[in-house]
Q: What sequence folds into this?
């Protein structure tokens, strides 16, 4: 296969969330659980919208797949969900921020650029994440 100069690998992750299942998950647990999943910024900015929270949860799962770890509340070697944050740029496009272990793993894998794309409607939310290792 043709190589792109400087690029050693490309990582991707995708995740689909059912809005109704996500809603039930949040209702089942207390607000501490919500705080374990979302950063304060995400709760303040998107807490009013179940779709926007669900799509950000989807982005966290997709990022954890791209990093090859999974999330902490799903697997023992997973990373904390709050290490992954999705914000909104002035043009409306989402932007991914990594902290803590997520940032460490990205650095260890030499992932220099990571991008996220989101889509949501009444029933489903989907996120796709890609990264380039240089
Ligand atoms: C951006 C756009 C394609 C979103 O499509 P949609 O069917 O309305 O909504 P979707 O559920 O598929 O996507 C919503 C997500 O799109 C993302 N989005 C919004 N503006 C975006 C942009 N300029 N670039 C990339 N992603 C964008 C956001 O993450 C949003 O989710 P959020 O509000 O929870 O953060 C549509 O609003 C549009 O065409 N806007 C005007 C033109 C534009 O900005 N185009 C640039 C993208 S090619």
A:
């Amino acid at each position: 296969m043709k190589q792109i100069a400087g690029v050693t690998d490309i990582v991707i992750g995708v995740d689909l969330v059912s809005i109704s299942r996500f809603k039930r998950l949040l209702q089942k647990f207390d607000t501490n659980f919500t705080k374990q999943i979302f950063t304060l910024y995400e709760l303040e900015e998107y807490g009013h919208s179940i779709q926007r929270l669900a799509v950000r949860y989807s982005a966290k799962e997709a990022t954890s797949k791209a990093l090859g770890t999974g999330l902490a509340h799903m697997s023992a070697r997973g990373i904390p969900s709050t290490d992954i944050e999705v914000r909104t740029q002035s043009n409306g496009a989402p932007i991914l921020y990594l902290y803590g272990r997520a940032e460490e793993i990205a650095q260890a894998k030499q992932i220099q650029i990571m991008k996220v794309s989101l889509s949501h409607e009444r029933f489903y939310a989907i996120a796709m994440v890609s990264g380039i290792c240089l």
